[in-house]
Specification:
The chain is built from five helices and no strands. The chain is mainly α.
């Protein structure tokens, strides 16, 4: 019974994390649209408060773009670059290792969930590539070689 309660609490944390990421992605999209419409960078008053979680959300977004799951805001296209995705995931792992013991429980949980999500997405993208669904992989990977 205690095990079931632990699973439920983990699910709640995971769902809250997913909501935070979704909100962050929407906010970033809105900022990109405002920047594109104004032709200038976002004003200092429009920038998010600097925090470890916002920094991680930026790396998460970059990794989603590298996995081809999100459009590049500059080109407006989805392009997969598995070496870039692997580099970003490795960078997040390095941050986890270097900050161990220095994060709040909330930050640590956010980091672990984010990293797990990206690792699973990377595995899925690799499976798709191996199954012949390479949609643009060769072009993106040959540029990075």
């Amino acid at each position: 019974m205690a095990e079931n309660q632990n699973e439920e609490s983990e699910k709640k944390v995971d769902e809250g994390w997913k909501q935070q990421v979704a909100e962050e992605k929407e906010r970033l999209k809105d900022q990109e649209k405002a920047t594109a419409a104004g032709g200038q960078g976002a004003r200092a008053g429009e920038m998010p408060e600097a925090s470890f979680q916002v920094f991680l959300a930026g790396l998460y977004t970059q990794t989603l773009m590298a996995l081809g799951e999100m459009e590049n805001p500059v080109s407006g296209e989805k392009a997969r670059s598995m070496p870039e995705a692997q580099y970003l995931i490795d960078t997040i792992e390095m941050l986890r290792d270097k900050t161990k013991g220095n994060l709040s429980d909330e930050e640590s949980t956010y980091l672990e969930n984010l990293l797990y999500d990206l690792q699973m997405r990377y595995i899925e993208a690799t499976k798709k590539k191996d199954e012949g669904g390479q949609q643009g992989d060769q072009e993106s990977e040959s540029e990075s070689d």
